[in-house]
Design goal:
Organism: hydrothermal vent metagenome
Radius of gyration: 31 Å
InterPro entries: CHP03788, VIT, VWF_A, vWFA_dom_sf
Oligomer: single chain
Strand order of the largest sheet: 7-6-11-4-3-16-19-18
Protein name: Inter-alpha-trypsin inhibitor domain protein
Pfam families: VIT, VWA_3
Structural class: alpha+beta
CATH class of one domain: Alpha Beta
Shape: globular
CATH architecture of one domain: 3-Layer(aba) Sandwich
Largest sheet: 8 strands, mixed
Keywords: Membrane, Transmembrane, Transmembrane helix
């Protein structure tokens, strides 16, 4: 019995030992898993918090509560619960002077510091893509400080030194031809600082109308995949900032703009219009205006209401009286050593009656990304439905829709039969906007589609153009265009006009802007008219004998129906015009294999002081296009030389460029050294018609980053770790009680 009892006792001890060992092993596994999960969770959450902190340059002290706010304001949350600080408010007054084909614009940006802190205001703002920015003034009370043009690095250094010294300073830098940054240092509590910016541009003329456009806000730019930084909310739930870094977009943080649903950014616009001919009608499609005629062809135009929100682009149109539109115009600026010319010539729409019927193979590419949500996608779908209806039975077509991925309707182009167009319209009606804006795969799919040589290849690209990797996409277009032509259709209240215009230029097509659904039919009909008629090609210019001119753009574009030829030229004064030879400029071209030519007298011009700046702006833009073509290491020296050329031209003509900036510094320090300086980003208004949730909270999906996923996984792992610890503690306690 003893032996048996001893056996039983030994067996029980072994069992208990095994159970103890298993419990210990379970504890070790749980502890390891819990610890690892807890660490991973903290890392994932910390990365997101760090990104938010890194992107959030606003470090203002708490000043007010929500109950203190009585108007739309941009607030920054403080460390103290329920306390906020006010960011600078912005008001913009725009004054335009139109003389013939040239516009001189002055815009005053009023920055008001409503907080009790000393602030540095940073504002990312849009301008027309062709704007030649050449002057800036910093106004403090009655004093005015003229901005100086400097190389970009030197301008940044001057500004930084002034900021540290407590001096008022302003810095204007170009991030894109249509996107600029304004920094204003040392705005005192309750103080207002005014920055006045001036620029020159050429009017657009198309289909019998002159037009001028002023962008007022920014649709947040999409950063392509493989971006390395995260998005984060830095203000209240009603506002967001978009700050990314990407291998493809090295300047992403500089072009990322805050948006706020309550930020009105009051806008006023006044225009002095000297058309130079009798005007039939003046109108604005997106704003209510009032106009007063003073003399024939001279008007003052202004917004009907004052201090309106800056939530959509402003566009003014005027139409000449029948028969009063000049077929040619020459503007000249006389300088010490050179004459600068701006030339506009209107070719006839029809050269012969034997117009060829063009069979077309059309690929429609439609953007269905998150930034198109709301009014924009409705406009795009309406435009595409109309385009499908316009197809003739002998035309071929296909549709590609894209967001984070691309989707092709047919495996290859199909004839526009009633069956195929029905399928296409049904496909379009079901499109929804969501996700990122991965344009490159969609463009490549369109360019690489099989094509019949008997058809004219046309690609119609409907998008808001809200991307940041423009240079990469331009390279794709130039490298893959072949015999195709790319026509861009800008959709929405504030599209990226730089991308849309340049993409059409590289694509040898045209650019159309649709700002609201009610104008889809008119704008698309005008585009169809261009698509269905022959193009004016092989344009060339012959100058009078002994005259050597430097023309920009160097390669004259093809012209579609209703479009004028516009270019700038510099002529050395040592080569004077004389009466022994013809003083006429000869321009030749072909449309539908029919020759066309026109002559323009160079000694019959209008004097205008802004032509030299426009010539310089065109030359810089052309050199920048060349720089984009050199993307490998073997061309580093060539790129350096081209950059130096741009700097030389920009400094000579006092122009802001990619490599030059305007900087203004006050002589007297106003901020006490012991007072800190806080940084505050001035928000843009959310584009009108955009769905707030998509603009402000949909940044994760639209930027194709995994920030939100990382945050969710981190929180889930943290909760799981806590659950396992609690469960294990409860089970252990229960087992002990049972024993």
């Amino acid at each position: 019995m003893k032996n048996k009892d001893m056996f039983l006792i030994d067996d029980g001890e072994e069992d208990n030992n095994n159970q103890s060992w298993l419990c210990s092993f379970e504890e070790v596994v749980i502890n390891i898993f819990t610890s690892v999960g807890f660490i991973i969770a903290l890392v994932l959450i910390a990365v997101n918090v760090e990104a938010a902190t890194t992107n959030n340059e606003i470090l203002l002290n708490d000043q007010i509560t929500l109950s203190d706010v009585h108007r739309g304001s941009l607030l920054f949350k403080s460390d103290n619960n329920g306390r906020y600080s006010l960011a600078p408010t912005l008001k913009t007054d725009v004054s335009m002077k139109v003389s013939g084909m040239i516009v001189r614009t002055s815009l005053k940006q009023y920055f008001k510091n409503d907080s009790t802190e000393w602030l540095e205001g940073i504002y990312v703002f849009p301008l027309p893509e062709s704007a030649a920015v050449d002057h800036m003034k910093l106004r403090i009370g009655e004093r005015s400080i003229e901005g100086q043009i400097k190389e970009r690095a030197e301008a940044n250094r001057i500004y930084s030194v002034a900021k540290k010294q407590g001096k008022k300073a302003a810095l204007i830098s170009q991030q894109r031809p249509n996107l600029f940054t304004n920094k204003i240092a040392n705005i005192g509590p309750g103080e207002q600082v005014v920055v006045e910016i001036e620029y020159q541009q050429v009017l657009k003329y198309d289909n019998g109308q002159f037009k001028i456009r002023f962008p007022t806000t920014i649709t947040p730019r999409y950063i392509p995949k493989n971006s390395t930084a995260l998005t984060s909310n830095i203000e209240m739930s009603k506002s967001s900032t978009f700050v990314f870094e990407s291998p493809k977009v090295l300047d992403a943080p500089k072009i990322s703009a805050s948006a706020n649903v309550d930020q009105l950014n009051a806008l006023n616009i006044d225009i002095a219009l000297n058309a130079g001919f009798p005007v039939k009608e003046i109108s604005s499609r997106y704003h209510k205006i009032k106009s007063i005629m003073h003399l024939e062809g001279r008007y003052t135009v202004s917004l009907l209401n004052k201090d309106i929100p800056s939530d959509r682009d402003f566009e003014l149109l005027w139409q000449p009286e029948l028969g009063s539109m000049p077929q040619a115009a020459l503007f000249t600026q006389t300088d010490v050593d050179e004459d600068y010319h701006l030339i506009m010539l209107m070719p006839p729409n029809e050269i012969s009656n034997n117009n060829q019927v063009l069979a077309r193979d059309v690929t429609y590419v439609i953007d269905t990304s998150g930034s198109m949500y709301g009014e924009s996608i409705r406009q795009a779908k309406a435009a595409l439905q109309l385009a499908i209806s316009r197809l003739r039975t002998f035309d071929k077509f296909n549709i590609i829709e894209f967001n984070s991925t691309s989707n092709v309707l047919f495996s290859d182009s199909r004839l526009a039969s009633s069956k195929n167009t029905f399928i296409a319209k049904n496909f379009v009606s079901r499109l929804k906007a969501d996700g990122g804006t991965e344009m490159k795969p969609a463009l490549l799919a369109a360019f690489n589609a099989k094509s019949d040589n008997e058809y004219i290849r046309q690609i119609i690209f409907l998008t808001d153009g809200s991307v940041a990797n423009e240079a990469e996409l331009f390279s794709v277009i130039k490298s893959n265009l072949a015999n195709s032509r790319l026509f861009t259709v800008a959709i929405g209240p504030s599209p990226n006009s730089h991308f849309m215009t340049k993409a059409a230029t590289f694509g040898r097509g045209t650019y159309t802007y649709i700002g609201k659904v009610t104008e889809v039919k008119q704008k698309m009909s005008e585009l169809f008219s261009k698509l269905e008629k022959p193009v004016m090609q092989n344009l060339s210019i012959k100058w009078p004998k002994d005259i050597v001119a430097e023309i920009w753009p160097k390669r004259l574009p093809d012209l579609y129906v209703g479009e004028p030829l516009i270019f700038t030229a510099k002529v050395n004064k040592h080569k004077k015009l004389n009466n022994q030879h013809s003083n006429n400029l000869l321009i030749t071209g072909k449309r539908n294999q029919q020759a066309w030519k026109a002559e323009l007298a160079l000694n019959n011009s209008q004097e205008n002081s802004g032509v030299a700046v426009l010539w310089a702006r065109n030359k810089i833009a052309s050199i920048m296009d060349t720089i984009r073509e050199f993307r490998d290491n073997s061309t580093v020296d060539i790129v350096k030389d081209l950059k130096q050329k741009i700097i030389k031209i920009a400094l000579a003509h006092h122009l802001v460029s990619n490599y030059t900036s305007l900087v203004a510094v006050d002589t007297t320090a106003t901020r006490p050294i012991f007072e800190g300086l806080k940084v505050a980003t001035v928000a843009n208004s959310v584009p009108r018609g955009a769905v707030t949730k998509r603009i402000l909270q949909g940044s994760y999906a639209q930027t194709a980053t995994s920030a939100q996923l990382h945050l969710i996984i981190g929180v889930m792992l943290l909760l799981l770790s806590i659950f396992l610890v609690v469960r294990h503690t409860v089970v252990s306690f229960r087992d002990r009680v049972a024993l």
